[in-house]
Amino acid sequence: MKVVVDIYGGDNAPHEIIAGCVDAMRKYKGFDIVMAGKSEQIKTLLKDYPIDDYSRIEICDAQEVISNDEVPTTAIRNKKNSSLVVALEKTKSDKDCIGMVSAGSTGAVLTGAFLKIGRIKGIQRPALAPVLPTIKGGSAVLIDCGANVDCKANMLVQFALMGNAYAKTMLNIENLLSNGTEDKKGNELTHEAFTLLKQTDLNFVGNMEAREIISGDYDVIVCDGFWGNIALKSLEGAFLSLMSLIKAEVMSSLKTKIAGSMLKKNFKNIAQKMDYNKNGGAPFLGVEKIVIKSHGSSRAESICGSIMQVVNMHKNNLIVNLKNELPNTEQAE
Length: 333
Known about the structure:
The chain has about 325 residues and is an alpha/beta fold. The protein is built from eleven helices and twelve strands.
């Protein structure tokens, strides 16, 4: 089986992306890597990252790059020789390709996956579903976090079904799901979604406060892409700001510096636990093959993690399990 990687997607491309690919191949066996990008440059850079078996690498030449400031739909249609489009088409056409990874433009990756790879039959809109660490040491799936800004209630129901299947397949957690605490809370969309979710077989526990997202009391959090993206970025920004404040306070006097040096390992452990990008990216659930969107600033460790996400999701039959949820979506069609 093969994993396709967009070598020129992301802030640290191509060096960190190639390094991540090589790390994955050094650590794990049983799969090959397809690198999409400027072939001659990739071959040159690979000399800096020696591996035992170069036959595990296939290079698909692509001379163009899609940037973050381009209109996603236009870029996908016009830049057919871009690393992202070539990666998407390879993933779609080659039966041995089980999925792909890209740290490129989020809009372009999601639009391209929808247009080039295609959605699972019965799914109205695929959704982005990052896994967040919780303060109890577990994980929570946030779906959707940016793919679908304007949603209908039945789309939220499908997000719930996909998030539930993903949580059970990859995280081994029970189907516990939440959408905004009072039953009547929210706007017309959340009211309608609340009613529909109550009618499913899911263990729907009702609405929640946004401050409880990483409490560990909920395994799957469902929202539209607009508010999901705000929640995700707010969590990320709040944590980074808090760590900066703690650092400034620790460095404010000799006494606090001494205390801080004693707690340095503890602070580092907290930072690692709360870094949801460390072990990979977010899956785009609802398309016919596995697509992992890595953070734009991903380095080798995260790219390696994203590649292994594709491999592990394939081994755990994620796509099949998502499709098995579809009979429950008939009321939402």
